[in-house]
Design brief:
Arc Repressor Mutant, subunit A, two-stranded antiparallel ribbon, 5 helices, globular
């Protein structure tokens, strides 16, 4: 689990669709589907259930287990953010550029 997969789960929960979630996040349906497939294979239970398309359309939903994993991940993110809010973290953040410098091609 990482920030991108967590954002994808949030978007699926909000939109009820992998393709709509992908569009919202600026990623292709294939990329979104591959991330969902990876998550479903890596956890002991699926995080997302899908229903095939039909005349009324298919869809996807975050399972109860997926919602629990997402909640725990977001809670961990918040704890880590609070724990890292110190002078060293601030100094490192201040030393970074907002965007990388342009490449110096030879």
């Amino acid at each position: 689990m990482g920030p991108g997969k967590a954002d994808l789960l949030d978007a699926i929960a909000a939109h009820g669709s992998i393709s709509a979630a992908g569009r919202m996040l600026g990623m292709s349906y294939r990329r979104a589907w591959l991330l969902v497939d990876t998550m479903n294979r890596c956890w002991r239970e699926p995080l997302v259930e899908t229903s095939p398309g039909s005349a009324h359309g298919g869809g996807a939903r975050v399972t109860a287990f997926g919602a629990e994993i997402l909640d725990r991940y977001r809670a961990l993110q918040a704890k880590l953010a609070r724990a890292s809010a110190c002078e060293d973290q601030s100094a490192l953040a201040d030393a970074m550029r907002p965007e990388p410098k342009a490449s110096q091609k030879s």
